[in-house]
Specification:
- The chain has 148 residues and is an all-alpha fold.
- It has one domain: Globin-like (Orthogonal Bundle), CATH 1.10.490.110.
- It has 8 helices and no strands.
- Helix 1 crosses helix 2 and helix 2 packs antiparallel against helix 3.
- The termini are far apart.
């Protein structure tokens, strides 16, 4: 692996590539699609969380992924209100509209799995609790599938 000469950059590149490799297991072998899926799902989660919790989640992400997460963010006092899993997935689908066909559900599944594998479980518990029941149930079903 080529090095940048800065450990922080080398580490975030390595970690980001690990995340993308794991996402590609679900969405297919296109690294750009995996990158877009990661961003679409993370930003959709971010926009649904209360401000403080969104910032705490961002702090858990690798430096490069953190930039993707915060890209074009305009913090609001009140988070978006996705009341159903369908609304949540529709928001992801809109973010993915310019990308090779990848389903919003597959993108969410892949990113949830990566988060489960790499982010502090206590932080994720707070994130899940802030989501509506239907989205939580979808995420929990993926967590169960992933641990098998």
């Amino acid at each position: 692996m080529a090095t940048t000469g800065l450990d922080v950059f080398d580490h975030t590149l390595q970690t980001t590539n690990i995340w993308l490799d794991e996402i590609m297991e679900t969405v297919g072998p296109d690294r750009q699609v995996a990158w877009h899926a990661l961003g679409a799902v993370l930003r959709t989660i971010r926009d649904r969380l209360p401000l403080g919790l969104a910032v705490h989640l961002g702090a858990q992400l690798p430096l490069l992924v953190r930039g993707l997460y915060y890209d074009q963010w305009h913090a609001h006092e009140q988070p978006l209100k996705f009341r159903s899993l369908e609304e949540f997935l529709d928001h992801i689908a809109k973010e993915l509209s310019g990308v090779r066909t990848v389903g919003a559900e597959d993108a969410a599944r892949a990113v949830f799995q990566v988060l489960e594998h790499h982010v502090d479980p206590n932080q994720l518990a707070h994130v899940r609790e802030a989501l509506p029941e239907h989205i939580r149930a979808f995420w929990d079903s993926i967590s169960t599938d992933y641990s098998i």
